[in-house]
């Protein structure tokens, strides 16, 4: 996971304690403070509160809020000299594992301006459970040829999210789901299996073509599985796909990870 960073312009003062963070800039006539707990770390799809405290020698006029240079809000202020604004921003899945720069521009009725930049890190959701090197054999063999991704165990065909299939005994180097689980190929390459997190997996699945049956698989392929029509996902890496040998010895070896052991139940 990336380190969390807080970038401030000159003249900014930073005060931090265990449960709160205060970032202040003061031009002389206008002072801006952003007070937040948890050191300004957000989560995708989770509201991130930003409490902005403004004080001014002259009556206030407006507050503009920007994210990464793009306008989020223009707030007309009452002509007072002290104001607290509670603003809520919800990071998107695409912003996971990124630092977002928020800018706060304040003006008073005499056109005095002050600006404050802060950085909010959007933490990704890591996959906490993993099973490695599960080998499934040709359907015509007597070995395990189907796998239940929800229960993390071999199963009969009725509960198989992965069922190694064949066509009249022909090796198709593929599988199909006997449940409602569907698969989208991930284009991030083998290294992407180690780096992928929930938000990027969901976006990859939504951008792809979901299939219930796969064939002509290759070692190193990665798939995003949406488990049984739920909002649970698994990331599957093909460790090895053995070529056709004609003796039912062909196998597919997979590793996969999910949010928790029984996600998808």
Structure description:
With 265 residues, this protein is mainly β. It has 2 domains: 13-123, Immunoglobulin-like; 129-258, no CATH class. It is built from 2 helices and 20 strands. The chain has helices at 191-195, 198-207; strands at residues 13-16, 21-26, 30-36, 41-43, 48-56, 60-67, 70-76, 82-89, 98-108, 113-123, 129-137, 146-148, 153-154, 162-167, 170-176, 182-185, 213-214, 222-226, 233-241, 251-258. Strands 1-2-3-5-8 form a 5-stranded antiparallel β-sheet, with no helix packed on it. A 5-stranded mixed β-sheet has the order 4-10-9-6-7, with no helix packed on it. It starts with 12 loop residues before the first strand and ends in a 7-residue tail after the last strand. The model is unreliable at 1-24 (pLDDT under 50).
Short recap of the structure:
By secondary structure, the protein is mainly beta.
* Spatial sequence of strands, sheet with the most strands: 1-2-3-5-8
Outline: rod-shaped
**Could you say how many structural domains there are in total?**
2
Number of strands: 20
Helix content: under 10%
N-to-C terminal Cα separation, in Å? 28 Å
Low-confidence stretches: 1-24
Strand content: over 45%
Largest sheet: 5 strands, antiparallel
Total number of helices: 2
Q: Radius of gyration, Cα only, in angstroms?
A: 26 Å
Averaged pLDDT: 84
**Assembly type:** single chain
Structural class: mainly beta
Order of helices and strands: EEEEEEEEEEEEEEEEHHEEEE
């Amino acid at each position: 996971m990336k380190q969390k960073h807080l970038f401030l312009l000159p003249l900014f003062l930073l005060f931090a304690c265990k449960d709160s963070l205060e970032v202040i800039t003061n031009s002389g006539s206008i002072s801006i403070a952003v007070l937040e707990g948890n050191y300004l770390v957000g989560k995708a799809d989770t509201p991130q509160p930003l409490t902005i405290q403004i004080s001014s020698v002259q009556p206030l006029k407006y507050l503009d809020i920007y994210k990464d240079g793009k306008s989020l809000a223009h707030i007309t202020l009452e002509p007072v000299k002290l104001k607290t604004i509670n603003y809520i921003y919800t990071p998107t899945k695409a912003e996971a594992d990124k630092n977002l720069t928020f800018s706060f521009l304040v003006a008073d009725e005499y056109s005095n301006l002050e600006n404050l930049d802060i950085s909010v890190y959007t933490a990704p959701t890591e996959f906490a459970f993993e099973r490695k090197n599960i080998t499934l054999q040709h359907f015509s063999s007597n070995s395990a040829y189907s796998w239940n991704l929800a229960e993390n165990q071999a199963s009969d065909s009725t509960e198989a999210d992965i069922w190694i299939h064949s066509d009249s005994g022909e090796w198709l180097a593929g599988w199909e789901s006997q449940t409602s689980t569907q698969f989208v190929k991930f284009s991030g390459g083998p290294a992407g299996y180690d780096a992928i997190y929930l938000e990027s997996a969901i976006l990859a699945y939504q951008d792809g073509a979901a299939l219930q049956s796969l064939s002509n698989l290759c070692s190193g392929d990665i798939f995003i599985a949406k488990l049984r029509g739920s909002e649970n996902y698994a990331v599957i890496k093909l460790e090895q796909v053995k070529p056709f040998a004609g003796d039912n010895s062909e196998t597919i070896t997979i590793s996969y990870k999910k949010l928790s052991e029984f996600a998808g139940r």
